[in-house]
Structure formats: structure tokens, C-alpha cells
Amino acid sequence: MAKLVECIPNFSLSKEKNEAGYNALIEVAKSVPGCILFDAQTDGNHNRSVFTLLGSPEAVEEVAFRLAKKAMELIDMNHHVGEHSRMGATDVIPFVPTMDVTVEECVEMSKRLGKRMWDELKIPSFLYEDSATVPERRNLATCRKGQFEGMPEKLLQPEWAPDFGGRKIHPTAGITAIGARPPLVAFNVNLATSDVQIAKNIAKVIRESSGGFKACKDMGFMLEDRGIAQVSMNMVNYEVTSLPVVYEMIRAMAERYGTHIVGSELVGLAPAKALLDCAEFYLKLENFDYKNQVMEYHLIDMLGE
């Protein structure tokens, strides 16, 4: 069986604000045989793009490096403005074991990439999630705290020396978080209000770090082009806390603040099981067995591959 790794690099650039740069990154993402650009999403409000790569470990690792190099050439973080937290031109590079690949192999990929980015590009990096060298660095938000502007001072603190590189950020490309992690669902809920404080209040209630739902990381943002507020989430384990659970809590709290949900969106790809959980919840399916009752899953099982 072929080994497959998923990689979801996030770049501090959007098609809306830099179409030429975005297209250049797309071309690099397609440049190595054995790696497929599975999906690309971009958002002008966040001024951010998220690519989903799938391929052999060797090909994916090479493409991730080439993308980091191109992003360094294209993006000057001193002039970057966007709603999403960020600390580097290539802000984060997660590796996700997908087929016949272990978490440990993905951890080694993250370490090789971090070393190469420092040796060849002089971009420092933190190792996060399953690659973290200390518990405090497992959480991406903790690594990113301070963002690009506050990172020079942060790196001088004894506990925040980069895992690869010196105690200075790259002058234009900043610093990158690299790590191995399980699949997550990037899930946003949009509210019918221009009051961003409502989204921030809701986000504080539902995020795990504030005592909310386990495996939920989130923030409240303003979507300037639409004039509405958004609760932007990373559901890092959708089987611990499902999408319908957080959606219903946001709906109830929005009503408490005199507003309502106008829509939701996925960023990048999501495991089918995460969406099937929504069908089971809202249709009130009894004794639902998705492996045997969803046609595609049943066919895959019958074919044995």
C-alpha cells in the first residue's frame, strides 16, 4: 500500500489582496511529482490562504519547503494586515498521517523540514502539536501568541528559543510553526451582526482554554467586506466535540445577544465522518451505522480497498 501524508500549509497572503502571489504559490504546489494540490482556499478578510496537499512523504516534504521559500520571496510580514492571527509568511505547516504512515514518521518530517528551512532560508520555527519538544508548545495559539509584531521580544524569553534557528525572526518572513497532528475541521460560523464583540464573547465561552468544549479552539473576527462578525474555529478532534454541538451552542448564544446565524463554512477539507455526525444529529437517525448505511462507505468496504 502506498504511503500518503496530508499537509495543510497556511500562508499570510490572499488571492483578493495579491492575486499574482497566490497564483505563484499554486504553481509551486503543483511542481513536484507524487504530490497533489488537493484543495486551495483563500480569504481576503483573514488575508490568508490554506492549501491541502496529499502525496508521498518525500514529495509532500519537498513541496512544503518550496512553498515556504516562495512565500518568503512574496510576502513581507512588516506590511501584512488581516483578521487572522499570524506570525510568519508561511504561518503553519502541519503534517497529518493519512495512509500507512505513523505519527512518528510525520514528526520526523516536521523536524527535517524545520532544520532545512533554517539551514537554507534562515526562517526559524517552533515544533508544535505531536512534534512539540515541551508541553507548552503543543498548542498552536500559545506558539503564535504575540504574533509577528511581538515575536522578536518573545524569542528573547528563556522558554521561547525556536526549535530551529536563532533568537531572531526572519526580517520579512517571520517564524513558522511546524508539526504533526491528527485531522481537524476548520469550521466558521457567521453571525447577522456587525458587533464583533458578540463573536468574541461567544468564542470565549465555547473554546476549551476558557472552560468550554474540549478540542475546540476559536476566535471572534470581523468580516469587513460583508459587515458581519464570525466565530472562527479549529475543531481539533471532531469525535470528542462534534460540529453540531458547537453550532447549537453558538446559535443559542447568538439569540441571547439578539442576533442569529446567517451561515457557516468549512475551510479546506473535512473528514466525511465529521459531516455524517451532522446528519445523524439533525435527522435524529436511530441506530445509524455509517459504514454500512452510507453507500460509498459500503462499496469501499465490499471492494476491500
From TrEMBL:
* Record-annotated Formiminotransferase C-terminal subdomain domain positions: 183-298
For the keyword Nucleotide-binding, the answer is: no
Q: Name one Pfam family in it.
A: FTCD
GO CC annotations on file? cytoplasm
Localization annotation: Cytoplasm
Sorted alphabetically, the keyword list is: Cytoplasm, Folate-binding, Histidine metabolism, Transferase
Please give the superkingdom of this protein's source. Answer: Bacteria
Identification of the protein by name: glutamate formimidoyltransferase
